[in-house]
Amino acid sequence: MAKKETNVIRVDKFVRGKSIFASTGISRVKVTKDGKVCCLEIPIKSSGISELIDSFQRLAPSPPAKSELVKPGSEIAKELGITTKQWVKVPDYSDSHYLKEKEEHNSNLGMAVALHGIAVALEDENGKEIKEEKEKIKLLKEMGLSGEQFSKIVEDITALTKWQDEEETSFLG
Q1: How does pLDDT run across 126-171, given as a tens digit for each residue?
Q2: For a Cys-Cys bond, which of 109, 130, 142, 169 suits 56, CB 3.0-4.6 Å?
């Protein structure tokens, strides 16, 4: 396979109003109609995604704490530097309510990234642009967006600004 050439741009100044970090691309999503495979090309953008992810991280659910008797020599005691038997509060990452909240939070984050990163208008049946996030989500679900397609779009959006291992190796190595 031929080595893909990466364009190098030397930055000598940052100028307000210039969007040198904004990235754009295409997400290619597989659709099958009547047994025939088709590829939808959806324009995507990265602008504002990291801020969106940061704001969601601040709202991420925390696991509840449970009391646990820690004995010297146990793994937890070694991690915490405990040398005497004592009760400590430890996060319960297996709590079902926490797991449900975390799953919902991650799903909402993924949907927000997709909605923010899709670089085309979402319109109702009358051609009017849909602005409200819940309506956009409803529209995509009504159009039959699958979990796989959704994941591919989100992956492609986040990949716009994140080096892939092979890209980084061939570019920096």
Answers
A1: 999 999 988 888 888 888 888 899 889 989 988 888 776 655 555 5
A2: 109
